[in-house]
User: Which sequence fits this backbone?
């Protein structure tokens, strides 16, 4: 007879939840606090930078507030990543449909070739063609950010078990229902992984985009480098680095959330308890 | 219920199904059997239009299956496969409720139906409802797969080697389960297998296919007593045909009522193969028979197994 101990699995589950909270949420919280402190408190560190670099007249970058630079930086990254994400996911879905299957190898080749270019090179080509300012930066970031998303989408949908798809069809789901209810939810962690890579690349590349005239967190770095002001470089770099850490941790948590069903614990006894 | 007429299907110049004519009666348990590549799976998948036939016609409930929308016909038929194909990101309840949800049943009705099906397949609803497939054993997963196929009370149940990947003990348990479900519901079932013992155990009618053509069809016993050719003989196994014949009959039809004997009894629901095993193991030529309640019914004599003539 089914001899079921109901308390044990529940206990297991709640303890994993608690673990997640301590391991995951805390770093994100602390990294965010640190980031905000760096953005708003950088100017108060003037005495520190003045003693560290006594030869500099202006040890703190004051042309723009660090908050406005962060804002501009995030705007460029989010705009380019949103466009890249949309196009990448849609194209990835397109080439994994029956109708688009012929284009798949072509698209995969373009993706592979495209990723051999370093992002800086894309930027260097875009500037003379389009001009200076935020525009070439946006276009270069969008193009480069497209590739990991597309790759993630194709890989994610490719990882959906064929049996799940066959059964979905056999039970009478329409193509759209199979996509939304089965394929996308199962592929989501891998797709988000692609978006994560894309955003991380763009965060870094957006800093370099200040060389083509876009105002970003790269501005203090570039100005510092050309004016031999190491303090500026450090200030810009610290904030970009912290920003990258915060966003990466946020993606980490999103990925966990999307694959949360996988974390349901396996109780080794259930097989014995109920089979007869 | 389902009618194939001169149906053909080709895959890249290879004939998978070749002028197949077959009628599956309502309420019948039909087993399609054959070696791999014999066209048995293709035949099954043509019924719910996962594979479209090239020529001939297939009728379901009197109408050509192409006159239905593919999704509609699939929702009227249950479908279970060897690799089970539970949706890994859905709970047991969501998996079983997949078709009722597509049919837009109210949530309460789906919940009740899921509980009913879990009970039917001996899985405690409270314990299993919220579990994910990876938390279940292989046998439990296949039970859920069968429950999902039955969820919307389909007119036909299509099963493609549903127990092929299970260990022998679990497989036998699920075979008993599916036979019981067939008896309870009187549903039309079409099952594909390459296991002749499974076919003999479950089928009302066996259809043996080779190279997309029917070699022999009929009730299980006819395959043993009257095989059409050497291929059929090879399939049912030449050396143990007698044993298999015994497995098709149950003790209840052969016991001599009114006689009494002491000793450890056997159940009247045993098949003669199990009875033979008891004769040999206990070195006796007569066994007392009881029903499930322990009530003495009579005596089974070894000689009656050989005559194979049911007692009056």
Assistant:
């Amino acid at each position: 007879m089914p001899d079921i101990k109901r308390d044990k699995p529940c206990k297991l589950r709640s303890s994993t939840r608690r673990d997640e909270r301590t391991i995951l949420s805390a770093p994100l919280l602390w990294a965010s606090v640190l980031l905000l402190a760096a953005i708003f408190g950088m100017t108060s560190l003037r005495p520190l930078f003045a003693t560290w670099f006594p030869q500099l007249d202006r040890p703190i970058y004051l042309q723009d507030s660090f908050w406005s630079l962060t804002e501009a930086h995030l705007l460029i990254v989010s705009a380019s990543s949103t466009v890249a994400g949309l196009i990448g996911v849609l194209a990835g879905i397109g080439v994994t449909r029956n109708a688009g299957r012929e284009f798949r190898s072509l698209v995969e080749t373009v993706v592979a070739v495209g990723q051999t270019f370093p992002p800086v090179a894309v930027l260097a080509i875009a500037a003379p063609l389009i001009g200076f300012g935020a525009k070439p930066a946006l276009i270069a970031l969008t193009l480069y950010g497209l590739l990991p998303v597309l790759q993630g989408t194709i890989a994610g949908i490719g990882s959906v078990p064929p049996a799940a798809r066959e059964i979905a069809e056999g039970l009478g789901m329409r193509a759209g229902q199979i996509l939304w209810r089965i394929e996308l939810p199962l592929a989501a962690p891998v797709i988000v992984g692609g978006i994560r890579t894309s955003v991380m690349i763009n965060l870094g590349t957006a800093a370099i985009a200040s060389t083509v005239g876009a105002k970003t967190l790269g501005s203090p770095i570039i100005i510092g480098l050309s004016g031999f002001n190491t303090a500026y470089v450090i200030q810009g770099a610290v904030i970009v680095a912290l920003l990258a850490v915060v966003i990466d941790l946020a993606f980490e948590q999103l990925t966990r959330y999307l694959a949360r069903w996988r974390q349901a614990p396996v109780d080794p006894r259930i097989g014995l308890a109920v089979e007869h | 219920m389902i009618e194939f007429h001169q149906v053909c299907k080709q895959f890249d110049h290879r004939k998978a199904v070749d002028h197949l004519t077959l009628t599956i009666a309502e309420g019948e348990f039909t087993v399609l059997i054959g070696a791999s590549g014999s066209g048995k799976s293709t035949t099954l998948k043509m019924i719910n239009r996962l594979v479209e036939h090239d020529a001939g016609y297939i009728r379901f409930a009197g109408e050509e299956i192409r006159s239905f929308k593919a999704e509609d016909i699939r929702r009227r038929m249950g479908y279970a496969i060897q690799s089970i194909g539970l949706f890994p990101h859905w709970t047991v309840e969501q998996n079983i409720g997949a078709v009722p949800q597509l049919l837009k049943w109210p949530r309460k009705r789906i919940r009740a139906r899921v509980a009913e099906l879990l009970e039917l397949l001996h899985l405690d609803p409270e314990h299993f409802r919220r579990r994910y497939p990876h938390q279940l054993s292989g046998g439990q997963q296949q039970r859920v797969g069968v429950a999902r196929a039955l969820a919307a009370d389909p007119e036909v149940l299509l099963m493609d080697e549903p127990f092929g990947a299970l260990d022998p003990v679990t497989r036998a348990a699920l075979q008993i389960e599916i036979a019981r479900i067939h008896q309870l519901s009187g549903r039309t079932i079409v099952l594909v297998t390459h296991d002749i013992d499974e076919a003999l155990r479950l089928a009302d009618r066996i259809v043996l296919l080779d190279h997309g053509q029917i070699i022999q069809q009929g009730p299980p016993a006819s395959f043993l007593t009257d095989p059409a050719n050497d291929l059929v003989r090879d399939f049912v196994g030449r050396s143990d045909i007698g044993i298999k014949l015994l497995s098709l009959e149950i003790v209840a039809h052969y016991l001599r009522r009114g006689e009494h004997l002491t000793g450890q009894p056997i159940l009247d629901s045993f098949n003669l193969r199990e009875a033979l095993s008891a004769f040999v193991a206990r070195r006796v030529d007569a066994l007392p028979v009881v029903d499930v309640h322990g009530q003495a019914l009579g005596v089974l004599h070894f000689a009656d197994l050989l005559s194979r003539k049911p007692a009056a």
